[in-house]
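Lecture notes, unit on binding sites. The following record was shown on slide 14. It pairs a sequence with manganese (II) ion.
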Amino acid sequence: MKKPVIGITPAHNTENDDISFRPTYVNAILHAGGLPLPLPLHGSHEDRVQLLSLCDGLLLSGGPDPHPFLFGEDTQLHCQNVSPLRDEMELDLLDLALKARMPILGICRGIQIINVGLGGTLYQDIPSQVSSGFPIAHKQPFHYHIPSHHVRITEGTRLSQIAGDSRLQVNSMHHQAVRDPAPGLMVSAVADDGLIEALEKPDYPFLLGVQWHPEYLWEKDPAAARLFLAFTESCR
Ligand code: MN
């Protein structure tokens, strides 16, 4: 049987314009039965139309902060590096994939790009914009393979089917987060401090964004492995 081809968006080094792909994404997709296809950063809209026609699904990977202009804000003091080129490339691909009703998985920056692309907003910096009596380390102080906080899964969502539980242990390496979910998106997981950790689109074949990094967890965590399986299966 032919494997579904999953386009993966690249990391962009804004100092020297290099692009790169973490093997974690590639291995997670391979293990789930998909064929990862690293996508270039440069190219025209027409090039992206053709490239996406080679894909059965789109994985929006982790990375730097989306530019605040994308959700109508000026740059807050603690916003970090941005890549306008990657913003443009990923928002274009998101739009094309949505029009094709292609399955989409967003990881970390990916959930933020999905939310911004569909009209939602972000916290530019959690520590300076969100106060909590028990501040959760959304930038965890230890390795990504080790979970650091819990998320509560919304009942009846696609994510709850995948997770098979109402609570998941996740890792966390973000300083930004979804603030207002975009119209049409449903919150499918929140952290105990109330921050949104997953979004999905109910009236769509498969559109799921997670704020954590299941690509570092799937080898030990069956729920993280099922997330990649559910995604690649929906791409067949
Ligand atoms: Mn988190």
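Take-home: The chain has a mean pLDDT of 97.
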